[in-house]
Design goal:
The complex is a heterodimer of chains A (about 290) and B (about 475). Chain A has about 290 residues and is an alpha/beta fold. Chain A has one domain: 3-Layer(aba) Sandwich (Rossmann fold). Chain A is globular, with a radius of gyration of 19 Å. With about 475 residues, chain B is α/β, with parallel strands linked by helices. Chain B has 3 domains: about 130 residues, Rossmann fold, CATH 3.40.50; about 110 residues, 3-Layer(aba) Sandwich (Rossmann fold); about 150 residues, 3-Layer(aba) Sandwich (Rossmann fold), CATH 3.40.50. Chain B has a 6-stranded mixed sheet, sandwiched between helices. A 4-stranded parallel sheet of chain B has the order 5-4-6-7, sandwiched between helices. A 4-stranded parallel sheet of chain B has the order 9-8-11-12, sandwiched between helices. The radius of gyration of chain B is 23 Å and the shape is globular. The chains are: A alpha/beta (about 290), B alpha/beta (about 475). Chains A and B meet through helix 2 and helix 3 of A and helix 5 of B. Chain B: It holds the Pfam family Oxidored_nitro. Chain B: One of its GO terms (molecular function) is oxidoreductase activity. Chain B: It comes from Paenibacillus durus.
Chain lengths: ~290, ~475
């Protein structure tokens, strides 16, 4: 009997740390003994760099361009602890249509029977930025994944992007698309950020999957071309990722969130702006 | 015309408030089109019809010395093939965009196609026609065109059709004329205006009969109609005036010549019927410098035509005319000249430029007006309710009329224009009325639509856009 593979999509605003978070979750799951596939759904093709030491990996789209008969070994590399790394790729910047590229790449992987062949326990899709068009929504459509996580910091634009993703989930979930696993708070500094993300989650009916504190260990590991799990396995930050990976692996509490409309989101953000001002003022007063 | 600086001309909807769905009488439509912003209607059920790509393909095929590269998947080649079988035309290639090209961009394929076109035909000009896939994935046509233009030293002209920007297929002509104005007709004529009139026509206009009349009337003309050359287009900048066989089709070029080069646009309606031809020829003669000779010619030809028409009257016959606007108005007027009654006009589109004609019709018999590009269901439905004695339209729709039991005359293969056009068209109509057996035979097979559908009103699927 075929193994039940969990397909998980990770979304979030550009530059928010999706690839770092996804790669560390993949590494932690692989370290725990699971068979994991990570698919970078981004024409930049840099999602799996830290899992495979930055070696060159032909992308699915490049291989499709060169040959109509693409084999799994042509477009994949075995990375840290056996994580199968795949990059969908896309056109060179400024030409073509990357959204269609994601669509075609995912279609090819399904044709190649990759998930069954590799007997994966988990497949993680690390998807470019926000949901920018129908092509980038492919991983959460058509029953490809049944769950999506959104990476967000406490910055307004990251929350805004998360709210947009909720709209896409709301659109596709009723027809068999992915539901929301939760928000992953990333780059969290001490103070209000955790409360802000928790409050946003509460207002939209979303869960919080975990918080990843801002840490120089992450930057240092990436400078070595590795995940935190590989470069600093004994660090507190590695444990944060292990805990997050365990949650993502075991969480069955999926929901269809209720995104805020633009006006409500603005008002909500303003209320947090006021709260931060008051906190700063009381801090200054107590310091005097 | 600031639009020449833009990549695209404005759509007919934006430029003139064009409507492609309507149901009402002439007066109400004239009222609507005279508004600053006519209210658009949408179809909740729509049947397939031509689009801007189809029309652009047709017009590009009529430009002599050109090669057209259709930058598209294979399907657009089918449109081109159909047009070529009907009308021949200049050579063409298709880039056959595949899925990979839609992802990675197909500009390399496009460059190869330009090279192949140049090597094979040594054309004076190469057109690159964009299509829906290219419009969606934003393939870079401009850089390929610029690069190859520098290499071969001939104009390589992008035509940015998309297939979905406008609901009026005639916008495809605007796209081609805009591209020619922007990239080809850049120079000044240099010399003072010469006393010739530009004869302008687009892809669907037959020219033989009207050219016979122009020659007979001694009118000097520069022929930019039917199958025309780039040099004729260049000469058009130095003419004293322009007159169109079908001013609706050639509207963009006519307006641009007037605005950019002071070539007066003679706003005459199509030279169809006796009065229509007379007015048109006199207007052309005024610019082409031979009014005296033209008058003598007109009198002679008119007398001969009137003699021939005595046996071909349509007295009391109710008629529906289903054609593009200029042809429809012209033929409707001719039907009245023959004593017929215009029960309804069915147009492919109508815009503010048609309001005066509709106003005239409103003051005469105020016929019903349907705007239904294609749309067999709406046509059959309206025909069933109106029950005219005669349907006049193009072959593909005349079939639907005949199947609905209405005597039908298809005018595709007729040169409608000028005094000889009168003598081709009138016998065709008379013959159709004398031989109703075809429509009787075809209608015996039953309708393509169920009774429940046909019991609905003809505009059942036309809704007003709510903003």
């Amino acid at each position: 009997m075929a193994k039940a593979t969990k397909h998980i999509a990770i979304y979030g605003k550009g530059g928010i740390g999706k690839s770092t978070t996804t790669s560390n979750i993949s590494a932690a799951l692989a370290e725990a003994g699971y068979r994991v596939i990570q698919i970078g759904c981004d024409p930049k093709s840099d999602s799996t760099n830290t899992l495979r030491g930055g070696d060159y990996l032909p992308t699915v789209i490049d291989s499709l361009r060169d040959s109509s008969k693409v084999k799994l070994q042509d477009v994949s590399a075995i990375g840290f602890k056996g994580v199968l790394c795949i990059e969908a790729g896309g056109p060179v910047p400024g030409v073509g249509c990357a959204g269609r590229g994601i669509n075609a790449a995912v279609g090819l992987l399904q044709e190649l029977n990759v998930f069954e062949e590799y007997e994966a326990d988990y497949v993680l899709y690390d998807v470019l930025g926000d949901v920018v068009c129908g092509g980038f929504a492919v991983p959460i459509r058509d029953g490809i994944t049944d769950r999506a996580y959104v990476v967000s910091s406490s910055d307004f634009m990251a929350i805004y992007a998360a709210n947009n993703l909720f709209k896409a989930i709301g659109k596709y979930a009723p027809s068999g698309g992915a539901k929301l696993g939760g928000i992953i708070g990333n780059s969290i500094l001490p103070g209000y950020p955790e409360s802000l993300i928790t409050d946003f989650a509460k207002r939209t009916g979303a869960a919080v999957a975990g918080f990843v504190p801002r840490s120089p260990v992450v930057a240092q590991s990436e400078l070595y071309g590795k995940t935190v799990i590989e470069a600093s396995p004994g660090s507190e930050q590695a444990d944060v990722y292990r805990k997050l990976a365990a949650h993502v692996a075991g969480n069955e509490n999926l929901s269809v969130p209720s995104p805020l409309n633009v006006t409500d989101l603005r008002d909500w953000a303003r209320s947090w702006g006021d709260a931060i001002n008051q906190e700063a003022a009381s801090f200054s007063a107590s310091a005097r | 015309m600031n639009e020449i600086r833009q990549r695209l001309p404005r759509t007919r909807e934006k430029r003139r408030g064009a409507l492609t769905a309507y149901y009402g009488d002439s007066a109400a439509l004239a009222d609507e089109l005279e508004k600053e912003e006519p209210r658009q209607r949408i179809r909740t059920y729509s049947e397939t019809d031509d689009d801007e790509v189809t029309f652009a393909i047709r017009l590009l095929g009529r430009i002599r010395g050109s090669v057209t590269i259709i930058h598209s998947p294979p399907g657009c080649g089918a449109i081109k093939l159909e047009d070529e079988l009907k009308a021949g035309g200049s050579p063409w290639l298709i880039t056959n965009i595949e899925e990979n090209d839609s992802i990675l961009g197909a500009d390399d394929k496009l460059r190869e196609a330009v090279d192949l076109a140049y090597r094979t035909w040594r054309p004076e000009i190469i057109f690159i026609l964009a299509t829906p896939v290219v419009a969606i994935n934003n393939d870079d046509i401009q850089s390929a065109a610029t690069e190859k233009e520098d290499l071969y030293n001939i104009p390589v002209v992008p035509v940015y059709a998309a297939g979905f920007r406008s609901r009026t297929a005639v916008y495809g002509y605007d796209l081609v004329f805009h591209a020619l104005a922007k990239y080809v007709l850049k120079g000044e004529p240099g010399a003072p205006p010469i006393p010739v009139v530009n004869l302008i026509g687009a892809a669907g206009t037959r020219t033989g009969n009207i050219i016979t009349d122009l020659n007979g009337a001694g009118i000097s003309y520069n022929n930019v109609s039917g199958s025309f050359s780039i040099s004729a287009l260049q000469r058009s900048l130095g003419a004293s005036a322009s007159i169109a066989i079908d001013k609706d089709d050639a509207r963009f070029l006519l307006e641009w010549l007037e605005e950019a080069h002071s070539v007066v646009h003679l706003e005459e309606i199509a030279p169809i019927g006796l009065a229509g031809t007379e007015r048109w020829l006199l207007a052309a003669a005024g610019a082409g410098g031979s009014t005296g000779q033209a008058r003598a010619y007109i009198e002679e030809e008119k007398a001969a035509a009137e003699q021939a028409l005595k046996r071909l009257r349509l007295d009391g016959v109710s008629v529906i005319v289903d054609l593009p606007p200029e042809q429809a108005f012209g033929i409707a007027e001719f039907v009245e000249e023959l004593g017929g009654v215009v029960a309804a006009l069915s147009l492919t589109h109508a815009d503010s430029s048609h309001a005066p004609r509709l106003r005239e019709w409103a003051s005469r018999s105020n016929p019903q007006v349907y705007i239904q590009p294609g749309q067999p269901f709406e046509k059959i439905n309206a025909l069933g309710k109106l029950k005219p004695a005669l349907y006049i339209g193009k072959g593909e729709a005349a079939v639907w009329a005949a199947r609905a039991g209405i005597t039908a005359a298809a005018v595709d293969s007729v040169d409608l224009y000028g005094f000889r056009g009168v003598q081709e068209l009138a016998p065709l109509l008379a013959k159709a009325l004398r031989n109703p057996s075809l429509s009787r035979y075809l209608s015996a097979g039953g309708s393509s639509y169920r009774a429940g559908w046909l019991s609905k009103s003809a505009n059942w699927h036309i809704k007003q856009e709510v903003k």
